[in-house]
Amino acid sequence: MSKLEINQLSKRFDDTAVLENVSLVIKDGEFVSLLGPSGSGKSTLFHLIGGLFAPDSGSITLDGEDITGKRGKISYMPQSPSLFPWRSVLDNVLLAQELKEKPNRDKAIEMLNKVGLSEYKESYPRELSGGMKQRAAFVRSLLSPQKAMLLDEPFSALDEFTRMEMQKWLLSIWEEAKPTVLFVTHDIEEAIFLSDRILILGDRPATIVKEISIQFSRPRVEDIRLSEEFLHIKREIYQILRSDSHD
Amino acid sequence: MRKIWIPAVFLAFLIVMWEVSTRLFNIESWILPAPSIILQEAVQSWTNYQHHISSTVVLTLSGFAIGVSIGLLIAVLLHVLPFVRQMVYPVLLLSQNIPIIVLAPLLVIWFGYGTLPKIIIITLVCFFPVTIATLDGFRQTNRELVHYMKMAGASKQQMFTKLELPHALPSIFSGLKISATYSVMGAVISEWLGASKGIGVYMTLASSSFRTDRVFVAILLVILLCFILFGAIILIERFVLRWQYVKGENR
Ligand SMILES: Nc1ncnc2c1ncn2[C@@H]1O[C@H](COP(=O)(O)OP(=O)(O)OP(=O)(O)O)[C@@H](O)[C@H]1O
Ligand SMILES: [Mg+2]
Fold this sequence. Notes:
- Chain B: It is found in: Cell membrane.
- Chain B: One of its GO terms (biological process) is transmembrane transport.
- The structure holds 2 protein chains of 2 kinds.
- Chain A is built from 8 helices and 10 strands.
- By secondary structure, chain A is of the alpha/beta class.
- In chain A, the strands form 2 sheets. Chain A has a 6-stranded mixed β-sheet with strand order 6-7-8-3-9-10, with helices on both faces. A 4-stranded antiparallel β-sheet of chain A has the order 2-1-4-5, with helices on one face.
- The mean pLDDT of chain A is 88.
- Chain B is an all-alpha fold.
- Chain B has 11 helices and no strands.
- Chain B is globular and about 75 Å long.
- The interface between A and B is medium-sized, with 28 and 26 residues.
- The structure holds adenosine-5'-triphosphate and magnesium ion (MG).
- Adenosine-5'-triphosphate is lined by residues 13, 18, 36, 38-44, 79, 186 of chain A.
C-alpha cells in the first residue's frame, strides 16, 4: 500500500556533506523513528523526501514509484505546527486535502472530536495552546490524501508532561488506521515508546549507524517505560549516540 | 483604547484656549475666527455648501477605488513577474520623489478641466502606498508556511491564493489607510486646479473673499471626510482580519 524506500541518498550544502548514502526501507503500516543529534540532517532528509529540493544522488520511491524531487507525494507534519493564522482550526486541518481534492468536512469534524478539539473548530490557531496546535497539525496530516506520513519532531517544543500525553494520544490515533510513519525525534524514550523500529543517524555527514527493532506489543501501555527491557534499549541507544559523537 | 479620554480632554482644552484667546485679544474674525463662529457658519450655511460635499465625496471615492485597484494590480504583476519587478520597482521608488502636484498643470493641458485629470491625480497619489505595502506583505510571507505548502504539493496558484494573498492582507490594509488620506488630499488639490463644484472650490471661493470662517468650515469638512474614510477602512479591516483580534497567548 505505501512502502517508502530510500536508496543511497546524499546531499551536501555548499562544502558540508549533510547526508551520505542514506538507505532505508519502511514497510507498509510501519512506525519507524529516526533518531539523531540536533543538526544531523533529519529535517533535510524529510525535505528531500517531500521534494523541497533534489538530492545530489540517490533515489526515493513510494510503492515502487520514483518520487525523487516530486512534491505532494507524502503527508508531512513540520517541526513547527505551521498552522495558518487566518484560518479556523477546521479550515486549517482541511488545507492539505484542499490542495488535492474536495475536502471532506464531516470527516474533519469527526477527527477533531476524536482529538478533543471539537470545541475549537471555529477558533483561530492563536487561541490554542502549544499542545492543541500540534494536535491540529497532526489531524491535518492525517486527513491529507497521501498515505505515508513524515512527522518532524512534532513534540519537541512541548513540556515533558504534555509530550507524554501527546505520545499516548498519537499512538491511540495511529492504531486505528496504521499509516506508514517516519518519525523524527531526538528524544530516545519517545522513539522507543512509539516505534516498531529505530534508525540511528550519525553525525556529519549523516549515515544510518544502527537499526534497532522494538518488540513491545501493541497497543502499548505507559508501564513499558519503566520496564527493564525499555531501560536496556535506552542504554544501548545512548551508548551508540555517545560513541558516535566521540570519534 | 480606554485611554482615549486623555487626548480628548487635551483637544477640548486647545479648542477652549482658542475660543478664549480670540475673545480676550479681540482677534478679528477674518484673521482667526473663534470656534463658535466657525460652528455657527457650518450650521447656518449648510444648504450653501452641501452640494460641494457630495461632489468631493464622489470624486474621492472613485479616485480611491481606481487608485487602489491599480495599486493592487501592479503589486500582483510585479510579484509574479520577478523580471519586471527588477526593472520597474526602482523606477517606481524614484518616481515618488516627484511631488505629484507639479504634474497637475500638465494633466490640465492634456485632459482639460473635467473629471479625468482629477481622477488621474488621485490615482497617482493613491496607488503607490498600496503597491509598496502589498509587495512588502508578499515578500514577508512566513517561510515555514511556504515550506509547508511546497511539501504538500501546492501549485503556484494555490500558493498565491491560499498563502501569499491572505498573508499580505494586514499589510494591504495599512497601505489602504495611507491611501485613504492621500485620496482626500488629492481630491481637494485637484479641485483647486479648476472645477465648478467641490470642497476645494468652496475653499478657494471663501479664501478669495476673506471668509476665513468658511475656509475653516471647509477644513473641518476635509478632516471629517478623512476620518470617515479612515474609520470605514478600519471597520472593514476589523472584520476581514478578525483572526488578529481574537484573544490569544501569542502574537
Ligand atoms: N537550505 C540549507 N542550506 C544550507 N545548509 C542547510 C540547509 N538546510 C539545512 N542545512 C544544514 O544542514 C544541517 C542539517 O540540518 P537539519 O535541519 O536537517 O538538522 P536536524 O537534524 O533536523 O536538526 P534539528 O534536530 O535541530 O532539527 C545543518 O548543519 C544545517 O545548517
Ligand atoms: Mg530538524
